[in-house]
Specification:
Strand content: 25-35%
Bound molecules: adenosine-5'-triphosphate, magnesium ion
Structural class: alpha+beta
CATH class: Alpha Beta
Order of helices and strands: EHEEEEHE
GO cellular component, one term: cytosol
Distance between the termini: 9 Å
Number of helices: 2
Number of domains: 1
CATH architecture: 2-Layer Sandwich
Strand order of the largest sheet: 2-5-1-6
GO molecular function: ATP binding; enzyme regulator activity
Family: Belongs to the P(II) protein family.
Protein name: P-II family nitrogen regulator
Largest sheet: 4 strands, antiparallel
CATH topology: Alpha-Beta Plaits
GO biological process, one term: regulation of nitrogen utilization
Shape: elongated
Oligomer: single chain
């Protein structure tokens, strides 16, 4: 099992969510987050003073899926969340040791 954590532009959330639903993804967690990437030290200029642009609003989508689903889900993000410009976001993939459905006590694949 793998966890896919994707940080995307808020305005891309709807098309991504629809594409994930189309793909049969049922369980996911969504958070409103703020972050910075490579452009963190870019300077802005406002009313005579410079300031550092630090945090940009993003949406974080977390999904735990079986390992064989990872590639097709990554493809969905690459297709739907891209504007081909800086700040499009990032995808992190990590191993998941265990999943437990609280209601039934089911574990592993059955609990996803
Ligand atoms: N290394 C990282 N670790 C954790 N979160 C990150 C990391 N890089 C980016 N993020 C998150 O992803 C969001 C979008 O990052 P962004 O797309 O700007 O990455 P980037 O590396 O600067 O790529 P680009 O040059 O395309 O902008 C950030 O606001 C932050 O929330
Ligand atoms: Mg960036």
């Amino acid at each position: 099992m793998k966890k896919i954590e994707a940080i995307i532009r808020p305005e891309k959330f709807k098309v991504v969510r629809d594409a994930l639903a189309q793909h049969g993804i049922s369980g996911l967690t969504v958070s409103e987050v703020a972050g910075c990437g490579n452009q963190k030290s870019k300077k802005g200029f406002f009313r005579g003073t410079t300031f550092e642009i630090q945090l940009v609003p993003k949406i974080k989508i977390e999904m735990v899926v079986s390992a064989d689903q990872v590639d097709s889900i990554v493809d969905i993000f690459l297709k739907e969340a891209s504007t081909d410009t800086i700040g499009d976001g990032k995808i992190f993939i990590s191993p998941v040791e265990e999943v437990i459905r609280i209601r039934s006590g089911e574990r592993g694949q059955e609990a996803i």
